[in-house]
Design a protein that fits this description.
This protein has about 100 residues and is an alpha/beta fold. The protein is elongated and about 70 Å long.
Length: about 100
Amino acid sequence: MANLIVLDPTVSFQGLAKQARLAPRVNDLSGVVLGLLNHHGTAVSGSTPGRDPFFEALKAKLGQRYQLKGVVWRTKPNLSRMAPREMLEEIAAQADVVVNGTCS
């Protein structure tokens, strides 16, 4: 009879989750610079190349609801890799709050 070995590819993050802290939250987006860091670009009719349609809609909705001081928008150059350190440092220096990525 053949042996069957079952591997569990999951990792338990319970210990890390207890140590992790969420970034400070803001009470109001009025007067802040909004940072958008999307993970991929989608060519959509009427959309800027490299811009995610979800982020386009989010930017429009937040712009209607709040008096944003500005928007900084960056797109990662490679979907499967972390954003370059320089890009992360740039958006962190320029934006007060950042929405980081969507999954599709």
